[in-house]
Amino acid sequence: MDIITSYIASTWSTQHTDSLIDLYNPTTEAIVAQAAPLVIDPQIALDHATQEAGILLKEMSFSERADLLQSMASLIHKHRDELIELAIINGGNTRGDAKFDIDGASATLAAYAHLGKSLGDSTWLIDGEGIQLGRSPRFHGQHIYTPLRGVAVHINAFNFPAWGMFEKAAVALLSGTPVITKPATTTALVAHRIVQLIIEQNILPQGALSLVIGDIRPFLKVLTAQDTVAFTGSSNTAATLRVHPTLIQNSVRLNIEADSLNASVLCEDVDEDSETFSLFLQDVARDITQKTGQKCTATRRIFVPQDKLDIVCNALAERLSEIPTGDPAQKGNMGPLVSKDQYTNVKEGIALLANQTDEIFGGLGETNMSQGYFVSPVLRKSNDALKATTMHELEIFGPVATIAALKKSEDIEHVLAKGKGSLVSSIYSEDRTLLQTLIPRLATYNGRIYIGNAKIAGHAPGPGTVLPLLTHGGPGRAGGGEELGGLRGLSFYHQRTALSGDKSSVNTIIENIAAI
Fold this sequence. Notes:
By secondary structure, this protein is α/β, with parallel strands linked by helices. It folds into two domains: 3-258 and 480-515, Aldehyde Dehydrogenase, Chain A, domain 1, CATH 3.40.605; 262-468, Aldehyde Dehydrogenase, Chain A, domain 2, CATH 3.40.309.10. It has 16 helices and 23 strands. The protein has helices at 42-59, 62-78, 80-91, 95-119, 163-174, 188-200, 217-220, 235-242, 245-249, 275-289, 309-321, 340-354, 390-393, 412-417, 432-443, 503-510, and strands spanning 3-4, 7-8, 11-12, 21-24, 31-35, 125-132, 139-147, 152-155, 179-182, 209-211, 228-232, 253-257, 262-266, 299-305, 358-361, 378-382, 400-406, 422-428, 446-452, 471-472, 483-484, 494-502, 514-515. The strands form six sheets. Strands 15-16-17-14-13-18-19 form a seven-stranded mixed sheet, sandwiched between helices. A five-stranded parallel sheet has the order 10-9-8-11-12, with helices on both faces. Helix 10 links the parallel strand 13 and strand 14 (299-305). Helix 2 (62-78) packs antiparallel against helix 4 (95-119). It starts with a strand and ends with a strand. The relative contact order is 0.14.
């Protein structure tokens, strides 16, 4: 039985607890490996990362750091098939869902490698144009970004062990910041193997990438104002991070991506025989079932005009019926949830939702599988989007969505606001006047808005795909954080400082420095 351990201070740790954690194949419930939780003084890891890798990374130019990212992207692609198999075994992924995770990691690294090359030989950044500060142009101001001197602690979710890791790490490493990454133990095989491959190939400076298997909390106690924490996961865990005494006392930067009741809205102008209508059905059905609904960007709430409710319900039920639940190794199937705990949580959530909604498809998630953590796709219905409550309050992290009727387009803003902040909402319409009115109102409640119509059919991956050049995060319930966004993501790992002085001195300081 393989035992996976932490990689700390440039060494695979032999210091761990005697209580090993079993990792399962969620399809068969067989134990596939064991995880050994780390026992170590966290200060050792932080000192090694900052004193070894931190110095070397900051001496490298953005272009040189970009080469490191591209090497990692190429390495992941080279071992793509091996990593896909691990994602199937330990994550219950279909092959398509596993590709989504692995390719998302390599694509994000490659995207940030390209951005890093565009920044050239500089090691820090200027922010915007210079500013005349007085009556004379001699008194001049300029904002600059310089990299923080600490480490980035990344706490990742179970659903994307590859993509989720490099969604954060690509940005931090390009910024010159060493990374301590903590994957969810349940699905840690993929993350562990990727780190193992990177270390074997000696791609990064020693200490640039550390892996923590087990409890990350001891590391949080030794962080300083030069360190950062980025978290993806439940709102309950996020709440404990927000009040962590060390993070508060030392003003440690914290970025959170938490729960999200994402919405898809079909507007009144869309005819049922149109390409936009077909795109809406395709996107919604995929986002309910892809990764078995275990995506932070998955559609949870569906809103349609009152006169189209039955039509959409029938059309979505038909599409969901074409996606069987079963062994993810079999093409076309939707696989299991990742763990027994996840299965229990989803089933309990469906039961609560059923108290206020009517069945359209999938009942309470029953399947005919005798083993594994399987639930069927579930679509429930509420007849009044404004009066519904559970669908706006409970995120069920599985293949479950609720559809509700809108009596008029003016209600769209109100029903989206009931979700208290989302990562992404999608609006399907060809009416540009309506969109021009809606988007400014809806943007307040969403980190991203996807506009679906016939012009992008076949050209866009859908609202559930996180793109490295666009920001990822959302207000309120979604955590209030922001990641990626191309070069915008670098600001989290940099200090912005205002310079003021005589113009010639300021211009000499920033000469040949890249702009963000």
